Amino acid sequence: MSDDQIRLATIGRILRRRWRLLAVLAVVGALFGYGTSVLVFPQRYTASASVLLPGQWEERELLTQAQVATSSSVVDRAAAELDWKGVGAADLKDKVSAKATDGNIIKILGTAESPERAQQLSDRMAQQFVAFSARLTGGDTDSGADTGPEALRKKVEATNRRISDLAAAADPGRTVEGVQARTSLEKLRASLEEAMKKLDQAETVSSKAGMVVMGPAPRPTGEAPPTRNQLMIGGAVLFLVAAVIGHLAAARMNRRLRTEPEIAAALSTELLGTVDVPGERHGHRSEGGGGPRAWIRRFLGIDTRWDTPVPQRSGDEASRRIRYRRVCARLRNKLPAPRRLLVVVPDGDEVARRAADQLVTEAASDPAATAASRGYLRVVEVSVTRPMVPDRDTESGALVVLSAGSWTAGELTGIAEACADGRHEVVGVVVAGAVRARPARSADQPPEKATLALAVRGNATGGSA
After folding, report:
1. Which residues contact 174 (CB under 8 A, 6 or more apart)?
2. What is the mean pLDDT of residues 286-295?
3. Rounded distance between C-alpha atoms, residue 127 and residue 108, angstroms
4. pLDDT tens for each residue of 316-329
5. Which terminus of the chain has fewer Cβ atoms in its 10 Å neighbourhood, N or C?
6. What is the biggest distance separating any 2 CA atoms in the chain, rounded to whole angstroms?
């Protein structure tokens, strides 16, 4: 892959050519998510109980009450009342939470391994929170306690009326005793009014402390997130995305040469032409033997390169043979005298191997060649890891045949150096490309339309010949 931007077509090619591998990785990711749900995130259920706070509350006061609802005092009392085996107050502390919502409501959440326990935990926490708050304010949760302040208020009002009657019946300022009595009555009235104000303030505080649990917590019907299905789907998606990113990263790091000028420069020679080889639709398939490992590679599709272009449809057999004959003609014109040459093919390059065999066949059957120049090509396969070319004997030169996009510049330089060590001059390079073949036609008698097309448009496909 070049340094161009990654397009959707590239990702589509990965999905199309490696779908079996991606499917297996997605299944492995789902199993990984399942294992994570069992070991790290077991099944959990969350229930919520609501507590209503009557009166006027500021936002900071509601936040304070939410913290009180999950305080150690409330949790310890709830743990003691539940008395779950093996579960202490410290364990419950991590399983409960509280938050303030609109309408002066504190919502208490309890999480447990079963719906029944989650419901019990939420209910007990709400009850203990209300009881603890009532204990802090000194109030009583009994509704009958409201009759005390109301009765006292009625008595104060009756006393005020009695004071007014006594003040009216007293001597209206004629004697000193009458004035003193009226003054004392007014002071008593002021004291009662002040006491009533304090009573109203105390009632307001008491009304705030009168919290009410808004019914039992509903039993949860579904797991708390992350659920097991969510973890399995997430694992499958994670492995799938990681596999696609890995393919793209490997393609970015790929330094295989793809263009004919780059290949010729790496071998320090010139390009003699390009030839077409009928091949598979999905690119080059590596040689892997017949063992279980090779079967697995074939099943997953990793023995086929995904980053090679889709083979284009080429001309017929006659047009492909014309390309080989043109390469042979250029090779004869390049040599000063007829001599035998080695056709060097990188080991494992199946497309290049088939092209080299076809080139040898065309050189032996070319009617334009002389009898001395026929059969002057011999194919040898060379390993790219440790290249070794036979020493110069009957052959006195090398012709390299390879496919584009399969080898790096370092590997091709190694082949060129191996040819030099064997005292073989690299006379040229031929680049082979896989194409989709059309129905064959006779090479000796090409149709008139094919001949006209070659004469007018030049080469059918694949660049210059």
Report:
1. none
2. 66
3. 10
4. 788 888 899 999 88
5. N
6. 163
